[in-house]
């Protein structure tokens, strides 16, 4: 806690959010929070008591923001059919009898899931289209598969209802977005830009699985991924590269640093990089893992100007605080949990791996050094996320290490080539060929004997596994201190 004081704040905030989710009270929390803050200010002569009082304040704050979020999601929709003006904010997904798109209502700013009768008109819906619909909007309904809750998923992503729209009950219109927040308007602008890039890529590349993977890896659009292709990446342990995350933003950050840093003042260069990173975050749809990575990279850039410790548990904790205060329901998002579990595990376990490896043997062997680093990072991330993967998806990929040795360099090459295609379109065929080759290799790994193990732990079992992991980490660190492993071995 001393090296990462914000961890204490995060723990208290998490506890408050969980309390706000499951405990209902009849009295207002805001006055209680104000009294707690005032009480903590008068305890400065008693630091331990004041720390406990601050923890109570943060706990109450988490509870309060969770209650406010829940109230914002409770919408009383009319029982009768009503006319609404809306804007399409997602790529259309073709289903058996309908076309599914997300809509943003122009007057209220509410997001809803909508399913249009499948015909030629609905097949040509595009992001940014203004519509006038006549339908009955219903509140979110529950649907579960294993430990996945569809209603919770909708709430986390801000959807307040769903509707079916018959083929003769909608038309294209010009919609004013003056009542919609600037954030949503900015997001819609970038989504329309992404839609144009996807159309260009699809028209020139001909679609197919290769296009679907490029669209997911480079632009965050997974609507074209087939179930079979998703299963291949899931079985092999490579599904994380289809969801934009810190890996992708880290690669983009390095590319921008190489292109910009050194060409102008360091402060200006870092500002340009951070603005470019956040523009990309809006372009790919503001997914949880990408926002987490962008906040961490922003903190990284700010701290690097003062030559201070850049990536730490404190940085990760600060990122969690910001995201949870903005959207406390993020705590229950699978992507949020896995993203923070992976990064936290890497920050904790990688130094231990580095201490246990004789660095002198790697100094003159850059290939071996790269290989060992890749293996260490992959293993650390897998240790942190494996319990969550088995809990939510009931599967453990046994060849995850082999898969990561292939997909991580491939993702780097694919992202660089995607940027190059914007300048030299003729490189698109090379890009799609590499992606197709990657799909084939993963397809071969997916059919190897014992490629994945089906396992369905309970919530209690999952929590106990994390307790065991934490206890093992603390024990190993203690052994490392007793054994006198040199901290100078770090940094391969």
If you had to describe this structure to a student in words, what would you say it looks like?
By secondary structure, this protein is an alpha+beta fold. Helix content is 60%, strand content 10%. It is built from 17 helices and eleven strands. The protein has helices spanning 6-22, 30-41, 47-73, 120-123, 150-156, 182-205, 208-219, 227-236, 246-260, 266-283, 288-305, 313-326, 334-356, 366-393, 400-423, 428-446, 459-483, and strands at 82-88, 93-94, 98-105, 111-117, 130-135, 144-145, 148-149, 159-165, 170-172, 395-397, 452-454. Strands 1, 2, 3, 4, 5, 8 and 9 form a seven-stranded mixed β-sheet that branches. Helix 1 packs parallel to helix 12 (313-326) and helix 9 (246-260) runs parallel beside helix 11.
Question: What would a concise description of this structure say?
Answer:
The chain has 492 residues and is of the alpha+beta class. It contains 17 helices and 11 strands.
Task: Lay out the secondary structure.
Blueprint: H1 6-22, H2 30-41, H3 47-73, E1 82-88, E2 93-94, E3 98-105, E4 111-117, H4 120-123, E5 130-135, E6 144-145, E7 148-149, H5 150-156, E8 159-165, E9 170-172, H6 182-205, H7 208-219, H8 227-236, H9 246-260, H10 266-283, H11 288-305, H12 313-326, H13 334-356, H14 366-393, E10 395-397, H15 400-423, H16 428-446, E11 452-454, H17 459-483
Parallel strand pairs: 4-8
Antiparallel strand pairs: 1-3, 1-5, 2-3, 3-4, 5-9, 6-7, 10-11
